[in-house]
TrEMBL record, chain B:
Family: Belongs to the ABC transporter superfamily.
Protein name: Sulfonate transport system ATP-binding protein
GO molecular function: ATP binding; ATP hydrolysis activity
UniProt-listed PANTHER family: ALIPHATIC SULFONATES IMPORT ATP-BINDING PROTEIN SSUB, TAURINE IMPORT ATP-BINDING PROTEIN-RELATED
UniProt keyword list: ATP-binding, Hydrolase, Nucleotide-binding, Transport
Pfam family, one: ABC_tran
SUPFAM superfamilies: P-loop containing nucleoside triphosphate hydrolases
EC id: 3.6.3.-
Domain ABC transporter, first and last residues per copy: 20-251
Organism whose genome encodes this protein: Rhizobium wenxiniae
PROSITE patterns named among the record's database cross-references: ABC_TRANSPORTER_1, ABC_TRANSPORTER_2
Enzyme class at the top of the EC tree: hydrolase
Amino acid sequence: MGLPITFLVLLTLGWEVMARRLANPLVPDVAEVATELVDIFASGMFFSHMTITLGRVALGFLVAFVVSLALGIFMGRNRYARQFFEPAILIGLTVPGLVWALLCVIWFGISLTTSTLAVALSLSPPLALSIAQGIKTVNADLQEITAVYRLSIWSRLRFLFLPTLTPFLLNGIRIGLSMGWKVIVLVEIFGLSSGVGYRLNTEYSAMNVAGVLAWTIGFAGVMALLEYGVIGGIERYVTRWRRVATV
Amino acid sequence: MDQITNRAIIPPIDLKDGGLTVEGVSKSYEAKGDTTEVLRDISFSVGEGEILGIVGRSGCGKSTLLKLIAGLDRDFVGRITLDGEEVIGPGVERGVVFQEPRLFPWLTVEQNVAISIHETRMPSGEKQELVASNLALVGLAGFETKFPHQISGGMAQRAALARALTSRPSLLLLDEPFAALDALTKMQLQDEVIRIWQSRKMSIVLITHDIDEAIHLCDRVIVMSPRPGEIKSVSSVEIARPRPRIGAAADAIRSRLMSDLGLF
């Protein structure tokens, strides 16, 4: 706990030194950024826009999760499906999130479809790939057990496939979400009139650098909390059955 | 040869009231144009409440045969029926215990046991009772909420047995269930199986390479010879239970089975 805090303190100090030496209105000092930060939190603005952005990511994530799970399992279990969809995954992995954001705004305008689709499109490829690889690690012995007791496809998913996939899913979710955040902010900058990205754009237009920094810091804080707090917590819970080596 | 033929004549079991019949079962694998015959013309029956042992060296196809009976492999010639109905896939009326416990590592002991009746329509309270009573039956009361890595190999195998018993099977298929356990745990579990069988009276097919295990547990023992897997002999074990592990009767059967296995 001590070292990360030391780093953050040093970063703030370094910034302050730089701001004072430059004395440029485009490089606000720590006090200015802090005032702005307090402002957006106190006015409730940060909370309302952050909620909107999170909601959009969640929706896109949900779509991506369902699609990638089906696609990943299909690809992992069927050689032809894998060969057929491989180019799609490859294209999906290489196309920058910026392009998805632009195309979705152009085609679907200011709508929920734009944000959902843009997030889903950038999240699905790494998630599906991760799932397809995870499926290959499903234990054949346990698969026989699910056959012996005639488990339904849903029970097999619940008792065998999902638990096997958990580490792969969490990994895919981590990579996917970090891409999702970037895409949603871009979509909001380009074409939406709410959300963190929209606020960033507004502050940018007003040349309010302290505002841009304040929003960025707030946004990054929430993301860090989600990744390390929520996803880390889920990970600890769903892997509690693991034996931990004592050496 | 005469000797073997004589022994193969066993009074036919009355099948009107159920049991397992295997008729003319053959199986071969094909790989790169080569055909490997694994089982050739296997026929036998297991009466209701009978314990049948199948012994043979590794590679004689005994585990393959068990897979066919379990319904895990439908690619074979011949007919397998249980209680008059043809086996065309797995079913909860056939419980299976493999050499490995095959428990789901992310489920607790009781959740693992409940797997076998997960698809059975039954009030959940009844299911819980069934799971609890079967766990108690195998001596695992108090370990319900443990994960598989927290219990010993013998206990894991007990859990696997409880899972197979919970669906109240009329036929229990045991595929070298104690082969990976230490000698003491093995003997203990063998006696537990007998105790459970006496209270439930289901039929049991026991695949094993352990002659002593077959003699201790089974009513009849089939010896299989390898490549292709064929029935070499069928012997009755007429020793009253509880069976002593040593004694003249057991010795006589042991030497017979050993000669059938080509050991001397």
